[in-house]
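Weekly structure sync, notes
Attendees: PL (lead), two postdocs, one rotation student
Agenda item 3: pending single-chain targets
PL asked that the sequence for the first pending target be pasted directly into the notes so everyone works from the same version. It is reproduced below exactly as submitted, 149 residues in total.
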Amino acid sequence: MLHLDEIGNPTSHFIEHLKGYVNYVIFEERGELTLLDLLKKLKEDSDVRDVKNLAYYSNGKLFLNPREKEDGDINRSFLRWDTLSTDITNGIGYALSSQGCAYRCKFCSFHLLVKEVNYREIDSLKEEMRLMAKSGSIETVVFNDDNLA
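Predicted structure, written out during the meeting:
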């Protein structure tokens, strides 16, 4: 765990601007596993100092926990839409068919965070669509990819 005064890198400077607006920032390409770990710690009212890929404030100081690449599989990390009610979804299902961007535009730094483009297998996407239909609560599907070009 590092305090901001010890590092001073672009990530820490970005997070510093979020002070007072957010409690935690996950800084990892995918982040789903980190989010699950964070939610578990919060539910248990446990210390978050050992949650990898997490930035947070404690006693007015910014701390960045050690980074660790997640092994998340884009083909398995989707919601069980059939377990959610309409009041949670508002009738909208969000799907991700790919992650990352193959372009290296000069005005964008997203490719520095997500270095590879990962595409979901068609069977995985079909299973998610099947769960959305089964839920009976999804009326609209929004593809929330990083780049659909």
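Discussion points:
- The longest strand covers residues 54-58.
- The mean pLDDT is 81.
Action: rotation student to compare against the earlier draft before next sync.
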